[in-house]
Design brief:
Length: 224
């Protein structure tokens, strides 16, 4: 009987008819702080319209299914089969839209910020930091249509670069993303028009590598 009660509690605790929801991630900078590399207008639309739309859609879909917002968003991938089949695709699409954008926004900072610890991690894999930037850039330029390039950690703690289309997520593949670049046209077209290569090149000038290293550390501790 006790085992049955614990089983019911564990499974039903994910669902609850309440007013909880996932909150919008706050930026660590103002909307015009990333200029001239990313304009106020681009970031305003990207953050306050598109990202927020994904978040609202996700919250509404989860509320519809009486979900209890008591786990990190990333863990929804592990329980997606608990939701009705008809809602799974929409949940996954909007979930990816939220998680991918939050990683993208949190990577950036005005003028960029270096971190020698992250440099050492990268150089142990890619020999030089410049070689890493070149490989990441080449990978990003391979995307046709919409998607993201990710720097990920696998279950063995190895770094790797992957491309995923639309709003797919490395979490679905058992990988941990620590850095990404948004290659959807809305992330750069107002500022760069068709010059996607210029956007990719300038992106490295506004990255906060200390935050990326912090994520690296957290994931390494989790899998060790």
């Amino acid at each position: 009987m006790i085992k049955i009660l614990w089983y019911l509690f564990f499974n039903l605790s994910y669902y609850y008819k309440g007013d909880f929801m996932y909150k919008k991630q706050e930026l660590d900078y103002s909307l015009n702080d990333l200029e001239p590399y990313i304009s106020y207008e681009t970031l305003d639309i990207h953050y306050n319209v598109l990202y927020e739309r994904y978040l609202n859609n996700l919250n509404n879909l989860l509320k519809k299914n009486n979900f209890n917002f008591n786990i990190p968003k990333e863990e929804i991938y592990n329980i997606i089969k608990r939701f009705p089949v008809d809602d799974r695709e929409a949940i996954l699409f909007n979930l990816g839209g939220v998680i991918n954008h939050e990683l993208y926004f949190s990577n950036m900072t005005p003028l960029g910020k270096e971190d020698i610890r992250f440099n050492n991690v990268i150089e142990s894999k890619y020999i030089t930091f410049q070689n890493f930037i070149e490989k990441f850039s080449v990978k990003a330029k391979e995307i046709r249509g919409s998607g993201y390039t990710f720097l990920v950690i696998d279950k063995d703690g190895e770094l790797g670069l992957i491309n995923l289309a639309n709003q797919d997520s490395p979490y679905r593949m058992g990988l941990f993303p620590i850095m990404n670049i948004d290659i959807w046209e809305h992330s750069y077209f107002l500022d760069y028009k068709a010059n996607k290569d210029g956007y990719i090149s300038n992106y490295f000038k506004i990255l906060d590598y200390s935050k990326i290293y912090k994520r690296y550390e957290e994931f390494i501790k989790e899998i060790c």
